[in-house]
Amino acid sequence: MMSDERMTFKVKDNNGKDVECEVLFTFESEETNKNYMVYTDNTTDEEGNVKVYASIYQPDQEPTVLEPIETEKEWKIIETILDEIQAQAREEGQATDEQ
After folding, report:
1. Which of 19, 23, 33, 90 satisfies CB 3.0 to 4.6 Å to 7 for a cystine?
2. Which residues pair with 76 in a beta bridge?
3. Alpha-carbon distance values, 32 to 3, 8, 15, 87 (Å)
4. Average pLDDT of the chain, as a whole number
């Protein structure tokens, strides 16, 4: 069961201002043997979509250091998981609407 507790962290933007980010989910890829964190700063783009970011991280490293994702293959893995989660959320939303 998922808890309602939000996992958040702060990063500094290009202007040195603290920005609070919320962790959406983390996962380990068997394909790359790396851990990924997908998160948002809860801002939206021009179309009104919430901006989502992803980084590589080491779960046992304190403090957590976010590393850039540099390969197309890794982005494809993350996009696939995001698509699956969005499809699942849509299905769950439709199931609630029907009741």
Report:
1. 23
2. none
3. 28, 25, 33, 24
4. 88
